[in-house]
Amino acid sequence: MVDYLGTRHHFLTCNMEELADLLYASVRSRDMPTMADVDSSLLYFCKLVSQQNKVVLTGECADEIFGGYPWFYREDLLAADTFPWMMDLSPRKLLLKKDVLDALSMDDYVQNLYYTIISEVQTLPEESETEKSRRRIGYMNIRMFMQTLLDRMDRTSMFNGLEARVPFADIHLLQYVFNVPWEFKYRNHTEKSLLRHAAKGLVPEEILFRKKVLIQRHIIHCMNASYPSVFGKSFWIRPVQSIGLLKRNRFKIPRCAERLWKAMVWTVNGRAADDGIPAAD
Questions:
Q1: What is the DSSP string of 34-72?
Q2: 3-state class of 164 per DSSP?
Q3: Is the pLDDT of residue 150 over 90?
Q4: Are the C-beta atoms of 96 and 238 separated by less than 8 Å?
Q5: In angstroms, rounded to a whole number, what is the distance separating the alpha carbons of residues 90 and 181?
Q6: 44 to 54, 155, 215: CA distances (angstroms)
């Protein structure tokens, strides 16, 4: 990229201990419980970037608009009769106290919300069931996922005096791409192929068509030091079971450790007022 575009690049790093330390600041920046390290890492990097720049462009919303997530093309996720990014609620339930679970009625809430949202989607008569499902998922991404990301980007950046602009969230671009046939967005079984081909000649080919790699998280190591104080006065979390699971390293379910990490943030938010930090209502 440096040789191709003649740009200056800076390598920024952040370790898990720093992410844990930023949980409180992350709650303050959002005025609500956050998405744990997803938020605190963005908060950290916005702070570093703001020291050199005051306005930046971000790639937020490209996955939602151009079809970059697995649920746009994986058959099992397309056929799921629920939100494809949270098909299994059991890791969340595992960590909550019974009275909280009973009050939340999580299964009913998720199901009712899902059917309410898909009822808003207008499909085309000539579309196959798969394409109708894909259209619904695209709408759900814009209706829920995207607004969460935009709010997070705006609050996290402005918390550090950084103005983040999101060109992919342009309403005209969104309206146009939403109705582009899927075969153009997934050419040669490549996610976001429409966007990639549109950028040909602007960035190196090896960058343009490389596979997206998920961030590698090592949450448990950091949590071992953090959970006793954070869970100390939890109204929602079952600390004994949660800590026991953590110590026995029984997080064989993908993302289960991450659910415990996110639960820590909810607990942090609940205790914020006691520590002199304004908590969300």
A1: --THHHHHHHHHHHHHHTT-SEEE--TTHHHHHT-SGGG
A2: strand
A3: yes
A4: yes
A5: 35
A6: 15, 13, 16
Q: What is the pLDDT of residue 156?
A: 93
DSSP 216: P
- pLDDT tens track for 64-96: 999 999 999 999 999 999 999 888 888 778 777
Q: How many CB atoms lie within 10 A of CB 271?
A: 20
Q: Which residues contact 120 (CB under 8 A, 6 or more apart)?
A: 139, 143
DSSP 200: B
Number of separate helices (H) and strands (E) present in the chain: 18, 2
Q: Taking residues 176-201, report their average pLDDT.
A: 93
Q: How far apart are CA 88 and CA 83, in angstroms?
A: 10
- Joined together, the tokens standing for residue 273 give 């007022």
170 vs 154: CA distance, rounded Å:
15
* Contact by Cβ (8 Å): 67, 192: yes
What is the maximum span of the chain, computed from C-alpha positions, in angstroms? 59
Q: In whole angstroms, what is the distance from residue 50 CA to residue 66 CA?
A: 29
**Threshold 0.85, pTM exceeds:** no
How much is the pLDDT for 28? 84
pLDDT tens, position by position, 15-54: 777 877 787 788 888 887 777 778 888 999 999 999 999 9
Residues 6+ apart with CB under 8 A from 181: none
